[in-house]
């Protein structure tokens, strides 16, 4: 007979309970916190290259959108959803709204999942940690698919936990009365949707399968029925997912591995920076492995201690709890192993394991004595808010909007703009197109020889360098070597942390002047 934890609740839903604070009320509080933290300053930070891709792709007709997604190693579901928002505007706040909404929903789903495993205090703690995590807020303000895949995976894990709380019911034929067919259905649909959103959900598919096989191995009486249902559900999931992979294989002409050639190699600094961002509530740059010193430094240690305490105190042989543990470990372990062959270790690829870490921190909070847990929760909320607030003013994305306005306001009519990466022009033109004054193709080049010839012909040259994506293929030193033949710059400006502009003029011609945007 299955051991039932005293912390578990009997149904797969938010069930109102007696008392002034019901599950539903607390769940609404958590989702409101997640919504407020993600909507605040939603459009303040400029687009960067990946978001520009979302902007362009989401504006395509559905058929072209799907083809473009698969051709560039992306699954299409998020872009189809994002396309619904394009008619309402292409500004940063509008295009990021889906990610913000899914981010808030993920807080509610984590609350429900943790409530099923560990009670209200645990659920409230886990949900608020997710709502206040700078990393999760950052991706809730990113016009990309990460919060959507997190929501699907949390829903799938919740359904899996419900199914495994009673393996005997989970083992019944799906058509039989009293079976756990609803949990199996939600698990299958959520897993399929996650896979059709982002390929990193393959690690979730592996985690769910491992958890189910472990439950079948431990319960001889339920083994046969569980294995049959596992085979049925996963066959349906793969039937809905594999056609996309076949299409991607055809459209990329079999070169599917090239989609990760931009990921920097793994080293200890990148490993530790990622851990701080995903699990320890530090604010990091979106496109660089850089941690900002602002915030409450000890909060991450407190959350880590709670998570370890939760892992120690929860039932060890309960299948539902084992599923959550397997989900926690599978993603980081899988990415580390994969990085031995080809680096895939990126903070955003670890995004869905962060909420599961917070789940165990919530369980640790719930295992504390009642009075102590309320005190710890209060400290955690206050410190979490104080830790999050600096994120909104920090430069977590390059200020290409400011660079665009600086250059457009100072570029002489006969000048040539030199860049080491055309992506910089794409990002600046998103801002300039709103003013109906983008950089035309004939005004810029990434060819230093052409720029040198233009300078010799008597035309000024303005060179711009900055972080474009998460792999900096042309570091600043290489850029300076590229522009060295142009001579000594007559003007150098920096825009924020990542962008530098240098001006070169022929002899006797005055240097272009620029406003002091972003520093000098």
Automatic annotation (TrEMBL):
Pfam family for this entry, one: PMT_2
Keyword Glycosyltransferase in annotation: yes
Coiled-coil blocks: none
GO MF annotation terms: pentosyltransferase activity
Transmembrane segments: 21-40, 70-87, 99-116, 146-164, 184-214, 226-246, 295-314, 326-345, 351-368, 375-392
InterPro entries (UniProt xref): LipidA_mod_glycosyltrf_83, RgtA/B/C-like
Membrane protein topology class: Multi-pass membrane protein
Biological processes per GO annotation: lipopolysaccharide biosynthetic process
UniProt KW keywords: Cell membrane, Glycosyltransferase, Membrane, Transferase, Transmembrane, Transmembrane helix
Residues in Glycosyltransferase RgtA/B/C/D-like domain copies: 89-244
Keyword NAD: no
GO (cellular component) term, any one: plasma membrane
Cellular localization per UniProt: Cell membrane
Record's protein name: Glycosyltransferase RgtA/B/C/D-like domain-containing protein
